[in-house]
Amino acid sequence: MEKPPTIKDVANLARVHAATASRALNPSTRAKVSTRTANRVLEAAKSLGYAPNSAARSLRTKTSSVAGVIIPDLRNPVFPPIVRGIEDALREAGYMALMGNTDGDEERERELLLAMRGRQTDGFILATGRRNDPQPEDRVPTVLVNRRTDSSEIPSVTNDNNAGVHATVQMLAELGHERIAHVAGPQALSTGWERYRAYLDAMAAHGLAVDPEWVTYSEAFTEEAGYEAAKRLQGGVTAIVAGNDLIALGCYSALEERGLECPTDVSVVGFNDMPFANRQRPALTTVRIPHYEMGLEAARLLLERIADPTAPAKRVILPVELIRRASVAAIKSVH
Amino acid sequence: MEKPPTIKDVANLARVHAATASRALNPSTRAKVSTRTANRVLEAAKSLGYAPNSAARSLRTKTSSVAGVIIPDLRNPVFPPIVRGIEDALREAGYMALMGNTDGDEERERELLLAMRGRQTDGFILATGRRNDPQPEDRVPTVLVNRRTDSSEIPSVTNDNNAGVHATVQMLAELGHERIAHVAGPQALSTGWERYRAYLDAMAAHGLAVDPEWVTYSEAFTEEAGYEAAKRLQGGVTAIVAGNDLIALGCYSALEERGLECPTDVSVVGFNDMPFANRQRPALTTVRIPHYEMGLEAARLLLERIADPTAPAKRVILPVELIRRASVAAIKSVH
């Protein structure tokens, strides 16, 4: 078997010192050599099939250029574009992502964090945050994406949940709806909690009363849990503000089961504008969040944090946009 | 700052020798200690927040318990459940996945492979295979998922493309269709090529002629490319076998643009049964592939291969199932 090429072989081919080759090959020190030299070294490395020994470098520098990305479930369509944004921004900085899914299980999350730390992960991006999560005990840089904690000690990238729900309620009020229900997401998650609070606020702002029968809570951000929660709605509502798009699809099923048509009988609005929301029957009115940009932004915050762990914890809130489609209509008649 | 706990601290707390603690903490040697001891050590490690130093272990054992997973684009809905299956099977074996997207760019794929090898990746699972890809030069264990190469030297997990397309053509023939078109996927990919070949075979098997005007080629497995290819169809076809579900959605758009209704005027069948295929308008008839199981199987093949790199290269072909939905109908009238 041939011996794998070493940094010396690369340096010889590129006609530079080994130290220069090493600097050129390490993304975090590449700026110390000229672009031309860096390119020559990278070309030489590629032509030789040189793979720098990151395990040795990890021990020496105590960094791995690997970030851990932990999400609830990649099969929830909101996450793939977020993860893709994270990876694209990490890659530009010479980083890669180790991935893990928790299914919302806190024990599994702890195991993943431990296993990733064992692999010298430089930092974490978590889409699994719960509102009451404690500050991480160690000082591994961590950024939350999509969800955040109630305390402001961990940097986060979230959406303007408040503005999204206010725009939704305003549209429904303008269409003549008064009996507006909310099938809320889990209240232990900032996304569920903030949207629920915004619903109460927005109803009050439009002078609309909220009957307790019009609010139910979905146990998870899934179609099934949304369906179960929607079945518990009472009181002849004419519109539903759903906690997210998957919950909205659960509302579709619950309405169909009761022989009610959307939007003729009941309007439904989701949140996220997940892929294929426009292809649902009826096409789903929803609040568009910038999935991919959230991922990019989260990765950038993490890289900043790795570079300077003592920098203040930024909280980035990205703007949202109400996208009106076929699932809402003006109210049929005043009761 | 406190010193991080060491393996000795864990061993002391669990009242075992350091070597035993080390064996219990390493998934590949855990079977050498009793379950009770292993659990005690794992509990001790957890309570101390012990993170084994994998970089040191990587240098010593030349393995990292990390696998590289490279796919075209996580935003294609066929990949998230495959990736999830891969991760679940890897995790059971104490492995984690480093993730990368190529957008089908071969240069980007080479860079990713190099960067992942530099991180001591023990093996690769690639969903990016092209039919004419060479055998990897080095001996890093590699498994292909969903797509395979023409040569049989690399283990692979694919679907029964042939049976899926045969079932599709048979259903359409039984509904009275004769002018059956094919909007094929890229022919450099096994999925595109095998389904195209199966279409020709199945048409011949049913005694149906194929007019060259009824076959067009999509440049990519995307909705946009499928739309462009579907626009080039000629010859008054009454049914379309699409290369995959995204291409089928492109066919929907092209038909709508020509004022044709699916399924009244033209039936459309996809391939993959991607998430939300049932929620399209009309609900898409398609061939269901076992996404999650493909991922599980690919990870198992890789782990086998890592354990014994000289074992014969298995090719696993998983069964598929035709799922009939609203996008197909009996032919309106015989021309």
Automatic annotation (TrEMBL), chains A, B:
It comes from the Bacteria. Pfam families: LacI (PF00356), Peripla_BP_3 (PF13377). SUPFAM superfamilies: lambda repressor-like DNA-binding domains (SSF47413), Periplasmic binding protein-like I (SSF53822). InterPro entries: HTH_LacI, LacI/GalR-like_sensor, Lambda_DNA-bd_dom_sf, Peripla_BP_I. Residues 5-61 form the HTH lacI-type domain. Keywords: DNA-binding, Transcription, Transcription regulation. PANTHER family: HTH-TYPE TRANSCRIPTIONAL REGULATOR GALS (PTHR30146:SF109), LACI-RELATED TRANSCRIPTIONAL REPRESSOR (PTHR30146). This is LacI family transcriptional regulator. It comes from Kibdelosporangium banguiense.
